[in-house]
Amino acid sequence: MMNRRTFLGGVTAATILARRFSWAATEHKIEKIGLQLYTVRGLMQQDFEGTIAQVAAIGYEEVEFAGYFDRSPKEVRSILDRNRLTSPSTHVDYEVLGERWPKEIETSKIIGQSYIICPWIPEEVRNQPDGWRRAAETFNRAGEVSKKAGIQFGYHNHWFEFYPVNGKRPYDFLLEECDPNLVTMEMDLCWIEVGGGDPLDYFNRYPGRFQLVHVKDVKKIPTGKESGGQDFGSSLPGMTEVGSGVIDWKMIFAQSDKAGIKHYIVEHDNPKAPFDSIRTSFTYLKQLRF
Predict the structure, then answer these.
(1) Cα–chain-centroid distance for residue 8?
(2) φ, ψ of residue 181 in degrees (nearest 5)
(3) What's the pLDDT tens digit per position in 179-234?
(4) Which of 45, 134, 183, 208 has its CA 20 to 30 A from that of 156?
């Protein structure tokens, strides 16, 4: 006959087992891993379609463009379709947000993109007394036009947005001044930490504002200058493959729902062996659970 001790032992074991299954059931993974094609730009210039085909063969399902290398929008869409890829987003220069903006929107509609991202604010704009305000106004105008066409505008950060100007971080200023319905943020999760920012702090203060993220890693966070004068040039010293550096991806991605993340996009500015690099990053993210 089952006594009290046996019964309670069975209940305890069952409870622990149930909790383990419950914990496992709540684990998340990245469903679709994307690549910013800037990572393989040299290869794209030599063999546009062949490079995209190899990106797809590694397992990437999404790609973000940073130029089309003189291919027409229809050609780009056809190449994507042949390789069973989608392109949710593209990067365009700040200068494009003026007279060339309607044409850029039409290009993105043909390719099938849902986002157009500005990746950089020129120094001549940023260094003006009202530069950040002008940038925010430009972003709101661009976002209003693209929204009417069914495309979301967004901004991608580097490090300088986290160095205070007149006592305030420009990134905070943009988040406050930009209409959240018109301007989303593509947070570069490496550059924000290099600049001294905390992704989780921003997720808490501005939930749902970060629909895309750039996933890149670094072996060591370099020391910056509070004046904002630091310039890493075209790449960050110590940049490495995702999972090979110091960034805690599991902790960050555990807050994905709060942040509003829909697209996870791998990037490495200057990999020594691009295909090996993007394969290593893909493999790490494919097995990551958070």
Answers:
(1) 50
(2) -80, -20
(3) 999 999 999 999 999 999 999 999 999 999 999 999 999 999 887 554 344 455 55
(4) 45
User: Tens of pLDDT along 250-275?
Assistant: 999 999 999 999 999 999 999 999 99
> For the whole model, what pTM was predicted?
0.89
Residue 210 CA to residue 151 CA, distance in Å, equals 15
Domain-by-domain residue ranges, the chain? Answer: 32-287
Q: From the CB of residue 145, how many other CB atoms can be counted at a distance below 10 Å? A: 16
CATH code for the structural domain at 32-287 = 3.20.20.150
Structure tokens at 100: 């060339």
CB-based contact 233:269 (threshold 8 Å): no
Residue (of 79, 86, 31) closest to 64 by Cα position: 86
* Residue 66: C-alpha distances to residues 77, 100, 143, 239 (Å): 15, 16, 19, 19
Instruction: Show the DSSP H helices in the chain as ranges.
Output: 4-25, 41-46, 48-58, 73-82, 101-111, 123-126, 131-148, 170-177, 191-194, 199-205, 249-253, 256-259, 274-287
Measured in degrees and rounded to the nearest 5, phi and psi for residue 203 equal -60, -40
